[in-house]
Design goal:
Layout lengths: L7 H4 L15 E6 L7 H8 L17 E3 L10 E3 L1 H4 L10 H6 E6 L10 H18 L6 E3 L15 H5 L6 E3 L5 E3 L1 E2 L5 E2 L1
Parallel strand pairs: 1-4, 1-5, 2-4
Antiparallel strand pairs: 2-3, 6-7, 8-9
Length: about 190
């Protein structure tokens, strides 16, 4: 099966690099929705009605990235939210330090019941690897929500150590935004 043509910048580097000055990121915080489906739009609609500890309404979705599971958005699709695009602090950790300096990544699904899909795992590893490299973060700075607040999130079946140790590896992005492994051949093309 022929692979889509892709340029090296879409294989290597950070396809999610914001167009505004980056914040001083110190952590990556992983979450799950604890639901069977969802999208940036549906979660934004839920979060816009929430209030912070001071009674102020949230600006909307609290995460910086959402990764789909095939119900509400494509399986493995990584979608940056307005918080990432505008480099705003998150509203996801229930902890001031991790909201201010933590990149919130949420995967759609309930990982108390099952593992993330293969496509979701490939995408979260790619995203975490790129962000670690881009912002000089160590594996110890990649945490689950449960590590900063009393919660089960991102679930007992989420492979936290495996994801935290992710490195930047080549992938290509398909038309729907999901990621697939890619290898650069000697001729400069790509193949699986």
């Amino acid at each position: 099966m022929p692979l889509p043509s892709t340029s090296l910048p879409s294989i290597f580097g950070n396809p999610w690099k914001p167009s505004v000055a980056a914040r001083d990121w110190k952590h990556i915080v992983i979450h799950h929705t604890a639901s069977s489906g969802g999208s940036v739009e549906t979660i934004h609609a839920e979060h816009v009605n929430r209030k912070d500890k001071n009674g102020n309404k949230w600006k909307g979705i609290g995460y910086h990235f959402l990764i789909g599971n095939g119900t509400g958005m494509s399986d493995g699709k990584i979608e940056p939210t307005f918080r990432w695009k505008q480099q705003m602090q998150g509203a996801h950790a229930g902890n001031d330090e991790y909201n201010q300096y933590g990149i919130g990544i949420c995967l759609v699904g309930n990982f108390q019941d099952h593992r993330p899909s293969t496509a979701q795992l490939a995408s979260i590893k790619r995203l975490v690897g790129v962000l670690k490299k881009e912002y000089g973060l160590k594996s110890s700075q990649v945490v689950g929500h449960r590590d900063v607040k009393s919660t089960a999130c991102p679930g007992k079946f989420f492979p936290m150590t495996e994801v935290a140790q992710s490195e930047d590896v080549p992938f290509f992005t398909s038309r729907d935004g999901s990621l697939s492994p890619s290898f650069v051949t000697a001729a400069g093309g790509t193949s699986e």
